[in-house]
Amino acid sequence: MKHKSIAKNALFGAITFALAQPALAVTDEEFKALQAQFDQLADQVEENSKDTTSNTTIGGYGELHYNNLSNGKGDEIKMLDFHRFVLFVNHEFNDKIRLFTEVEIEHALAGDDQPGEVEVEQAYVQFDIGENSNIDAGLFLIPVGILNETHEPPTFYGVERNPVEKNIIPTTWWEGGAMFSGHYDSGFSYDVALTSGLDGGTNIRGGRQKVAKAAANNLAATARVKYTGTRGLELAATAQYQDDMTQDTSDDVGSATMFETHARWTVADLTLTGLYARWDIDVAPTAAQSDIDKEKQDGAYIEASYKLNPAWGVFVRQNQWDNGGAGDTKKSQTDVGVNYWPHENVVIKADYQAQNDIAGNFDGFNLGIGYQF
Amino acid sequence: MKIYLKKLLVILCVFISPAVYAGGVYQEPADFINEVFDNNPPKAEVLWLDKDIKEQIVEILDHKYKGLRVRYWQQDKETASRSAWVLDEIGKEKQITAGIVINNSQIEQVKVLVFRESRGWEVRHDFFTDQFKQAGLKDNNRLDKTIDNISGATLSVRAVKKLARIALFLDQQVQNKQATQK
Q1: Backbone φ and ψ of A307, nearest 5°
Q2: Is B20 in Cβ contact with A192 (below 8 Å)?
Q3: Domain count, chain A
Q4: Range of the domain at A15
Q5: Contacting residues of A for B122, CB less than 8 Å apart
Q6: Whose CA is closest to A249, among A222, A282, A223?
Q7: What's A357's domain CATH number?
Q8: With helix as H, strand as E and coil as C, how does B44-81 read?
Q9: The pTM is what?
């Protein structure tokens, strides 16, 4: 900073001196020398500004939500919630080794009997091991779906994240382990991971151990293939196998396979998205009926969005999901809404949701403001 | 589980070997300039950024800009018809460096030269950069062509679009300056 200040002062002094000498004749050589000095000083000022760039960077995102929902039976949800406050701190050790971390406070207040949680959602070291590939080791997001890895509020439509990725995948989902990734000029990329697994039996979302003294008797293997080699198109598929969903081979709930695929196609200002995810859990015939009823869980959504201009976008989404259970368990929700970006990294959202009876029949509107930096 | 681990290793072996993607520096800026001018590049010129120009750059970038000058290469100073620019902008966290050639106030070529972000590498593909060909600048400093986004690479796409707009804008400034000097 001191050097920068000296260089700036010197540049200012040189210019002042030059302007203060109108009556003096300046030879070509002197003029060229002066010009060279200006250039040198400008080089120094620019170089010093670059020097202030640190190998450590911070970033983050956050979102405040207001829900105004009712089910027509006297039950209401009228809630204002600072749903997520997230900070990233990343560090580049050298050109080939870097650290990514993400810490999140959910629902603003964490502690005993408080609604929120403090969570480490990412903390992994990435090693470049070739010109096309890298290994991530530590705690990272599972490569599945659309929102699980990219969920900063300005990047998606709808105040709340869609219920299919939340309840079936289950987003946001992170595990500890190692992942090998690479990509090709053709537009294909792949990820292969060996990580800790779920520990909730047939309760998928409740089975996330969040790498907090997580049982690691049975690991999970995940593979994703993605294609983005055609303008505006993304195709991806993820499969995961876990050989025991309770981390205990002596009970009636055993292995599970998860499959997810999605497509997203953008043409000019129109984007169409479709996603399907499914779990098949191996449950013994002797297991409790409540587990047998949840052997298969799946869901899908389709979404159409349109950017009216750089600041405004509208969307409509139809979600259907089924986490199993007794009787008819097929839930559905329709969302329609608008995003307004006063700045490319700030978004104000409004949407209307309508659920079927099985999903709770909570209809109404949601408002939100979100940011990223 | 053992069977799956074996399959995992086989998949790794299959994928590692034929890799062609070059991470980080795809082409040195100097090599890009040589290529653009058939190994006979003109001397680099310097455009000093006055207050007005800087204000417009800040408006395009939507954040502060520290530079004092921008270097460029111009093939024919008389007609000022073709110029090349090497510009940087941050995608999510790291700088993306792009080489941009402007010909008759329209983009002739956009090439991502350096990319160090952890995601969004798709912006270096021809299917993305070819969209910029023939794009010009509207009065509000926006591109006169729609550039399709890449899912999951929004911030990188945004950065390259900004660099294209800045190159067109600066080319315009050079032309205006040279026109007033004639």
Answers
A1: -90, 110
A2: no
A3: 2
A4: 2-47
A5: 187, 228-229
A6: A282
A7: 2.40.160.10
A8: EEEEECCHHHHHHHHHHHCCCCCCCEEEEEECCCCCCC
A9: 0.82
